[in-house]
Design a protein that fits this description.
The structure is a single chain. By secondary structure, the protein is an alpha+beta fold. It has three helices and eight strands. The chain has an eight-stranded antiparallel sheet, covered by helices on one side. The N and C termini lie close together (10 Å). The relative contact order is 0.21.
Length: 172
Amino acid sequence: MTDDVIPRGTSVTRDDGTRVLHWEVPLPHPVVRVWHAVATPEGLPSWLCAAEVLEPRVGGAVVLRWLNADADGRHTLAAGHVTAWDTERVAEYTVTVHGRIRFHLEAHRGDGTVLRFTNELRCDDEVRLDCLAGWHDHLALLAAALDGSPVTDWSSWTPDRWQRLRDDYAAA
C-alpha cells in the first residue's frame, strides 16, 4: 500500500542498536501554520496527542498523552524534556516510550513547508514496525488537519489503517 499524501518512512539501525525512523514530508502550508500544529498544545491534539505539559525551551518539561487508544483502551503517555527548540524551525522532545522525536521545518516552494520528522529509539524489530506504521498514520492525520480536517473525535479511531501500514512496512 502506498500512501498518496505521506511518502514512505525510512529506517536505519545504528551500530549502538538505535533505530532511526525518518520521513521527509512536503506540506502545502506555511511554516508558521505547520509549527502551530507540531509544537503547540493547541495544535497537537488535532492529529497526534494532548500536550499535558509543554515548556517551549531547551530543558523544559514535556508530557504527551496520545489520544488514540490501543485495543485495551489505554492511551500512551510519554514524559520527558525538550531537547531542542528553535521557534518555527525545530521542536525536539526526548521522552519515555518514543525516545527522541524531532520536527524540523523548512520553507519550501513559496508558502509550503518541508517537515523532516525523525524518531530515534532503542527497540526490537516488532516495535520498529509498530512505530513506522504509527508515525506514518499520524503524519497523514497531520496533513489532513492542516487541510482543514482535524481529528475531533478520537474515539472513532481504529487500528485498521495502522495495521495495513504495518503490514506494508513489514513486507518491504
